[in-house]
Amino acid sequence: MYSFKDIAVPCSSRTVRFLLLSCLMTLCWAEPRVLEPPIRVELEPPESSNFNTRNVLTSWITMPLDHFDPQNRETFQMRFMFNEEFFGGEGKPVFIMVGGEWAIAPGWLRAGNMYLMAQENQGYLIYTEHRYYGETLPYTEFTTENLRFLNVDQALADIAYFILELKKQERFANSKIILYGGSYAANMALWFKQRYPHLVEGVVASSGPIKGKVDFAGYLEVVHEAFKSEGGEQCISTIRQGIADTIAAMESILGRQSLEEAYRLCNPLNYDNELDLGYFSGLITWSFSGSVQRARPGTLLAICNNFATNIYGETPMEKIGGYIAATQNLGSCWSTGFETFLRTYNTTSISRAWYYQTCTEYGYFQIAPKSGTVFDQLKWLDVAFYVEVCKQVFDQRFDEAFVYDAVDRVNLIFGGLNPDVNNTINIHGTVDPWHALGVYDRDLKEGSPTYTVPRASHCFDMQGWLSTDTILMTRVQQAARRLVARWLYTKFEQIENYYQISKSSDMKSVLDTSYFKSLDLSQSRAWYYQTCTEYGYFQIAPKSGTVFDQLKWLDVAFYVEVCKQVFDQRFDEAFVYDAVDRVNLIFGGLNPDVNNTINIHGTVDPWHALGVYDRDLKEGSPTYTVPRASHCFDMQGWLSTDTILMTRVQQAARRLVARWLS
């Protein structure tokens, strides 16, 4: 990376040094960079995409340009991708990933939580592309006039039309439809369930900011809290001081030179132009926002640790500038003018399309707060700055009043934070800045749960399992898959589906590996396989004051490592937890639905802790828990060491069985 400090200059004033650098900038730096605000999300495919699966195929459907004007006969081609790897045939479910403000990619049909849902439920996988994004282009030129058909009403109608066409195929006629969407597409999934409830069985909405808001100060408030919670007061103090020093530097010539050097600016700022200062403020806040929006556990702490050293720079202001350059992979220098920033949106691009939607539907303008955050000082980043982009890029009619009215319309139509939906799963992370515009503190309705997970960020649940995931993150992914399975199948169908999956080629491939065959097919191996794939039962060291607490190395990771090394690397911790959850789901855990049973335990049997020992299973299905008795004591004949209670339970069991038979 090019740095001002890489230039050898004679010992002279900072003014001379800056002039020399200014002369060198044009020659040494390649193309100036422009930073866009994180208003638009680029939903990258899962990191663990499995490219050994059957190919994901691409197809197109002819879509009406205007679903609400029957006299308009214009059409366009909507792209979609599909993967039938797990499809169980006629009537099995269809899982549709809803595309948002990005180009769709095949990785989402090769990995991730929806991919696992399809695997567990013999589902068909589809990924639809949103009009005006990727290769789904109603027009080749994105003039303001041509963008008039870009709105969520038309986009939701696209999905409805797609589903109706899909169900015309015999194999999908009776298939239940599940939608999965993240970010803006999460809004679409929830709103689709509200507007077209007859077309989908249920939806999973990840990180949906369902309330439109023009002056979205809450975004940077969450960014502030995320750095504070992960990095502590020292981290926040460094950021606050760096921004304060930046603003103070604007008051003098030498200060401005230091500022422009620290931030790697291509040209001096126009300190009298509030729009230029607004863009410069965005350069700072949008970089911090991006780090939080993409955060995984530990990533923000790593940034704060770098602030505590001189990795980014020596002074607080240099540290902010160095951090921005490092996290944005700056290979040149930053453009400084608002006019240059506008050119980002003056071409036919995804960025232009999405900014149009923010001006005409959602707002989402991430302004400087006034609540004591480190970003409060950047006062030039306000609603007027963002609205000026709307006016100059699209139409002078798109003024502040227009934008507020447009956002109010969307909130009125879809209910803001009170959508009328059922069979939904609503997921958020506490360090995701977008959760401030979602419902994160209550369920949307009975049977439509909300999960808000500490330390989780934007759309975390859509990925497959990652090594940085917390236990709570993994549990929410599992909970979503369990609830979707309940929507799709009755209890009997769930059991049948489970056995169909267990006989799939994927499971057979585990049993047929040469490594498996080369080992002695012992009872121990067979049972350990079942613990990895069904029950767990890993007897780890407690943390409750027992004599065994000190043996901390006997943990879940130890037992799972056996699963991975003896059977298959896929049998990791997430796999085992999923497998155990599936068994509990199918058979009811501690609440089996049975009659005519006798349930016997002993208090000194360690296994009784996982059984029902403190109540009868049902009237006529008694439980006997016997003091001083251990594992399966009642199965023996009479022993001289038996207590009277042990013998009485054996007799009671024989009497009850006789009554069943008579």
Automatic annotation (TrEMBL):
It comes from the Eukaryota. Keywords: Glycoprotein, Hydrolase, Protease, Signal. Residues 1-30 form the signal peptide. InterPro entries: AB_hydrolase_fold, Peptidase_S28, Ser_carbopepase_S28_SKS. One of its GO terms (molecular function) is dipeptidyl-peptidase activity. GO terms for biological process: proteolysis. Belongs to the peptidase S28 family. This is Putative serine protease K12H4.7.
